[in-house]
Amino acid sequence: MKIKSQKDFYSGLMFALVGVAFAIGSTHYTVGDPARMGPGYFPLILGILLAALGCGILAESLLIETPDGDRIGAWAWKPLGFIIAANCVFGVLLGGLPSLGIPAMGLVVAIFALTFLASLAGEEFKAKEVAVLAAVLAAGSYVAFIWLLRLQMQVWPSFLSA
């Protein structure tokens, strides 16, 4: 069978493989049943749904003709690097890295760093827009995680909250 859309084929394959991996990984936890869900129930259902979505996209890529075959272009290294770096920096700033002497800077600083670094992955950078977005994300995260979910995590750098 001929692949009629490369982009859809590889996207569907990726979704199916990640879904199967999550479904298999979730079986190491207690799954439970719909009335009494265990910690593995949600990842199992999500993995199955993701795998089913991937199979649907795979089937579409083999059945529906596209004008140019939707060829996959070159890798976008710049956005990939900035997005991965932004997530790594977020984790380090949120929890710190004691082995390297980097203290935890808290939720707000981590979100601002994540937003500014991830915005460098795009074609254009507008500092005012990114600052507004970061402020909205930080405020929303504070409300969701600290107020509503009552999670115990550092919000500000320790030298500011002391």
Automatic annotation (TrEMBL):
The keyword Transmembrane helix applies. The keyword Acyltransferase does not apply. It comes from the Bacteria. Keywords: Membrane, Transmembrane, Transmembrane helix. The chain crosses the membrane at residues 12-29, 41-63, 75-94, 100-118, 130-149. Residues 11-152 form the DUF1468 domain. This is Tripartite tricarboxylate transporter TctB family protein.
